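[Q] Does anyone have a clean structure-token version of this?
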Amino acid sequence: MNAQPAAGPVVVSVHDIAPGTAAQTLRWLADLDARGIPATLLLVPGLWRGRRLAGDPEFVAAVLEAGERGHELALHGLHHRAVPGQGPLWRRGVAQVMARGAAEFATLPQAEATARLREGLEELAAIGVTPIGFHPPGWLISPDGVSALRSCGLRYYSTHLAVHTIPAQESADVSARIAAPALSHRPGGFGERFGVRLMTGAARRYARTGRAFRIALHPDDLAHAGLREATLRAIDEAVELGARPTTYAQLLARVLDPVDS
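[A] Here you go.
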């Protein structure tokens, strides 16, 4: 089943949100708030870069306040680190190249994927967050991981090229696929300059044609001169050309219930 959203949505997301990236997260949020752009914030609840999310109450308060301002809060893995030695060799290789060791769910069997999903949801529930969306680190998730999602009460997950609905475990419904390519930088890599041109050019093209697309903001982007400016320019130009900023949750609502959304 393929679902096509209304013309023109652009979903902006802020990735890798944890105490170790608090400064970068708040910088991106300030930029988006200044523009009135609602974003989806991808939270890493487990131990990553030295601390668990719940271990920084001041930062948690800032994240919850962002949710009150209209930003969506979503689950982004548990520890944001790949699990070594699991899954087919080719899948592990792809995960390493595409996600640089962060593809936590790329090779997991169903039981372990389920356990990590539930632990992540419990960690978020403890700070008052009940997400409806899951974003696997690196946008990579194993077939067993997709199966695990159905038992966890989430409503959608994302991959590089699309957003996918998650039917309830007891439902006979099939998943809907919302085509929406994701644009992001690869800071420090050989393709960094090419990635800047790709993001700005693709954002303009998609906005002009009314195609749904996504722009992903990462904390490490801010450590490289020019990436912040290029990303904000891509967002600004897309909006000027008619793209409508929306969160993943709002996109899902418009597709599945276009009359009420």
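[Q] Thanks! Anything notable?
[A] The first helix runs from residue 22 to 35.
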